[in-house]
TrEMBL record:
It comes from Dyadobacter fermentans. Its EC number is 3.1.1.17. GO terms for molecular function: gluconolactonase activity. Keywords: Hydrolase, Repeat. InterPro entries: 6-blade_b-propeller_TolB-like, NHL_repeat, SGL, SMP-30, SMP-30/CGR1_Lactonase. Residues 17-247 form the SMP-30/Gluconolactonase/LRE-like region domain. This is Gluconolactonase. The lineage of its organism: Bacteria, Pseudomonadati, Bacteroidota, Cytophagia, Cytophagales. It comes from the Bacteria. It is an enzyme of class 3 (hydrolase). NHL repeats lie at residues 197-226. It holds the Pfam family SGL.
Length: 276
């Protein structure tokens, strides 16, 4: 599939960036892990320090307007209100009877359930926190589970397993143990080193395509809903960490991209426009 893309750098920052999301007012949000900041901006304007946390990573804005932020330093998912004031924690150090080591990324489904990854080598897990407060481990034994995304019908949860360079799909249909399967294996870097691959953040568009921020590959890779690789889009950002849609039209996508040139920095925030 021939996709045409143009990329504009919105910001250079001293710290590697993560956690892109957009609110209903068009405000752009992202995190600086080692910088301990959550920033808010509008295109063409300077960013504002919106909130602070220990080591903020992935974030999601819930249907109620609450920001949920994975904080790996606190081993917690922290809650912020619309004004950036910290209002509590969704969890701290424990979930479903397991110790949580490194909460990394999270999504909310249409029912108000929250799913998050605990990014650990070889024994990583994916958890579900029900709207009513229930807790469940829905996948374990993963080699650094990372980014998450939901299919448009919210029937599948996609999970990037970074150190195996692949994407899992977990069925969210009713059942005590959700079935899971390897959905796609990503192209490998010519170096052969795992660190040069590492699928990171994920997003799905309205057509069901899965977009992968491929850390180390300097790329956004686009897969069809049937797991066929459609395109690899060069970001010019060596460590491409995550992405979200600012605009999701059938023939044109605007994608907010985070990452950097090294860790803990410097970092950058990009806006990519893709003509489908």
């Amino acid at each position: 599939m021939d996709l045409q893309s143009t990329t504009v750098k919105l910001l250079d920052l001293p710290f590697y960036t993560e956690g892109p999301c957009v609110d209903e007012g068009g405000n752009l949000f992202f995190t600086t892990l080692s910088g301990g900041q959550l920033l808010r901006m509008r295109p063409g304007e300077a960013p504002l320090r919106w909130a602070e946390a220990g080591c903020p990573n992935g974030q999601v804005i819930t249907s109620g307007g609450t920001h949920l932020v994975c904080d790996s330093a606190e081993r917690a998912i922290v809650q912020f209100d619309r004004a950036g004031s910290r209002t509590g924690e969704l969890l701290h150090e424990q979930c479903a009877g397991y110790a949580v080591q490194c909460p990394n990324d999270l999504v909310e489904d249409r029912y108000g359930n929250v799913f998050f990854t605990d990014s650990v080598r070889e024994s990583g897990r994916v958890f579900k926190i029900g709207k009513e407060g229930s807790q469940q481990c829905i996948a374990d034994g993963l080699d650094y589970p990372n980014g998450l995304a939901l299919s448009p019908d919210h029937a599948l949860l996609y999970v990037a397993e970074s150190y195996q360079n692949r994407i899992w799909a977990i069925s969210l249909n009713e059942g005590p143990v959700p079935p899971a399967f390897v959905w796609a294996t990503l192209p490998g870097h010519r170096s052969g080193r795992p660190i040069d691959n590492l699928p990171d953040g994920l997003a799905t568009d309205a057509q069901g395509r899965v977009w992968v921020a491929h850390y180390g590959m300097q790329a956004i890779q686009v897969f069809s809903a049937e797991a066929t690789l459609l395109a690899s889009l060069d970001t010019a950002l060596p460590l491409t960490s995550n992405l979200c849609f600012v605009s999701d039209q059938p023939h044109r996508k605007s994608v907010l991209i985070t990452g950097g040139y090294a860790e803990p920095g410097p970092g950058a925030v990009l806006l990519m426009t893709v003509d489908m």
